[in-house]
Design brief:
Elements (H helix, E strand, L loop, with lengths): L3 E5 L7 H10 L3 E3 L25 H7 L3 H16 L2 E5 L4 H12 L3 E5 L14 E3 L4 H6 L4 H9 L10 E8 L5 E5 L8 E4 H4 L15 E2 L35 E6 L1 H8 L5 E5 L9 E6 L4 E12 L9 E13 L7
This protein binds zinc ion.
Zinc ion (ZN) binds next to helix 7.
Length: 334
């Protein structure tokens, strides 16, 4: 049975998009608060007042009457009313818990994906308490591979290297191999940069990529052809990250100004990076911004490696803890 599922979570939650993709792949209609409808922008308090974090209770109360808040609230409530199931993905905050409570009251099918933390007795109200996203398949059905293929074709989910047929030798200007999804017979389909297809690269990252090269105009040899003699531009898988008690290392990294400031004030506590340095828990990162005289020393407290949570091959997502804001000594000329 096709369901309408409301995924309740928080902006800071890194696995929410993966949960949305999983539920869509099973064929359900999923309300994704990050992309409500008609490309409407998502709601955030900053639209009302950049200083929202220092509101008094009176100011907070007033802000709830703001048209932007009214419209954001209506969008979420309409979606909740339309849904027949609600999945709470932790970690998340008060909104998500209120939404789940509403769904319980409306006798919707309810699920909590737990994380480690303080136990909560009232969680007994939900139908299913789960500890791994895989359990969603037991509750909501097996993925329909045709749906997932469609979602990937439409660009709603990234391709995995296993889905792709790589070229034998032709590469994109960025260095990645050219590829196309297996199973496509359409002579008007195209070769494209594998890093774009798998989202290892995204638009605007400053790299130069090829245009899509139509099959019927470009003679690109695929790795699958006998005459390729095993040649391929397929990337070699990452070596297994070392998780043993080897010595912590400090990695020096450059960071763009906006995320650097967010890490400095403590609101950004993750680093999503190409895992080309063997990052491991316990290592430190020096986050530098441009040629600034201050850098941030942060410690890695947790890492999710590809292919967990749909993290693209070659990347990892790290939780970081700010340890020190370090001022470099200035070299003053006398
Ligand atoms: Zn490319």
């Amino acid at each position: 049975m096709k369901r309408k599922i409301y995924v309740a979570s928080s902006w800071r939650n890194l696995i929410q998009p993966a949960i949305v993709t999983i539920l869509k792949s099973i064929g359900h209609e999923v309300y994704d608060f990050r992309h409500p409808a008609n490309n409407d922008d998502w709601f955030h308090w900053t639209e009302i007042d950049p200083n929202w974090q220092s509101w008094t209770p009176e100011e907070f109360k007033q802000a709830l009457e703001h048209p932007v808040a009214e419209s954001g609230f209506k969008k979420d409530m309409d979606a909740l009313d339309r849904s027949d199931a609600c999945v709470l993905v932790m970690p998340c905050g008060r909104s998500a818990h209120l939404e789940l409570g509403y769904a319980i009251g409306k006798r919707q099918k309810t699920v909590i994906l737990l994380e480690a933390g303080e136990p909560e007795l009232m969680y007994k109200m939900v139908d299913h308490i789960i500890t791994s996203p895989n359990e969603l398949f037991d509750i909501f059905g097996e993925p329909d591979s045709a749906n997932l293929f469609e979602a990937k074709l439409k660009g709603e989910a990234p391709w995995h290297d296993d889905d792709l047929l790589y070229s034998a030798t032709s590469r994109c200007p960025c260095g990645a191999g050219l590829a196309y999804p297996k199973g496509i017979r359409d002579p008007f389909h195209y070769w494209d940069c594998a890093d774009i297809l798998t989202r290892r690269s995204v638009a605007g990252d400053g790299k130069k990529h090829t245009d899509q090269l139509p099959f019927n105009m470009w003679k690109v040899k695929s790795e699958g052809q006998g005459s390729a003699y095993g040649a391929t531009t397929r990337p070699t898988p990452n070596p297994e990250p070392e998780m043993d008690e080897s010595i912590p290392v400090t990695h020096v990294l450059q960071t763009a100004p906006e995320p650097w400031m967010a890490a400095r004030n403590g609101s950004k506590r993750f680093e999503f990076r190409r895992n080309d340095r063997g990052f491991k828990v316990g290592d430190s990162l020096e986050l530098h911004c441009l040629a600034g005289l201050t850098f941030l020393l942060v410690r890695i407290t947790y890492i999710a490696y590809a292919p967990q949570w749909f993290i693209p091959d070659g990347f990892c997502c790290m939780s970081i803890e700010l340890e020190q804001i370090v001022k470099k000594p200035t070299e003053t000329k006398q």
